[in-house]
Amino acid sequence: MATRARFLGLVCLSWLAVAAPAFATPSTQIWIPSTDVQKFGVVHLNDDVFARPNKPTVLMLGPTVGVLPWTAVQAEVGFDLTLLGIRPLDDKPLYLHAKIGTPEDSLFHFSPALAVGIFNAGIDPGATDQNVGYAVVARNLPVVGRLSAGYFYGNPDLLVDENGKAANHGLLLSWDRTLTEIHEKLWASVDFQGGQSGLAALNGGLSWAFTPDIAVLVGYDHYLNAAVAGDDTFTVQLDLNL
Description:
Blueprint: E1 10-11, E2 20-21, E3 43-51, E4 58-66, E5 74-83, E6 94-102, E7 113-122, E8 129-141, E9 145-153, E10 169-178, E11 186-193, E12 201-211, E13 214-223, H1 226-229, E14 233-241
């Protein structure tokens, strides 16, 4: 599903004791990048909230635009303005992302969807430039839904564990499916990002498509390393196609 998706993630700075969500979001599941790519000329706007009790609420707003006119190879670019409630990170809230991919069956019969890209490309070197590169493959299966798997690698100076040790790579996994047994507008997903940085999380959520161009997702984010990422968050994500 093309959400704000994110993509939100957590900015993990070895010199900062407070973990802060910040994710320049390509088309995603709930948390991790998906193989979905915005169609040529479509402007997708995400407005995401990540909240936890007694902590600053993270607000994210940004567009993602499809930039290739072909069907076999597609690409998108975009950015997010992310307000974390943490200085000095909020002084430079711009995060960039880009993705190129191919849909299912485009290479050969029963070929999976493929995507490679980058997210959390911040503009403040040493503070927000997580620069997370990734590759993901996915395939829809009858009854089961879509299964996705991939790998990511980011800036080892920023993606660290609670001891300041690099934790900048790991698995990306997800399942998603439209729950047609309940309603054709209801979509569900569970996704996972591995490692021990603030990006490491297990997430679940449901989305309702009010129209083909307007959807709202409600989800829960469980962070694998609470010492770095802090408490779990609830997320509400509004997605608009313009």
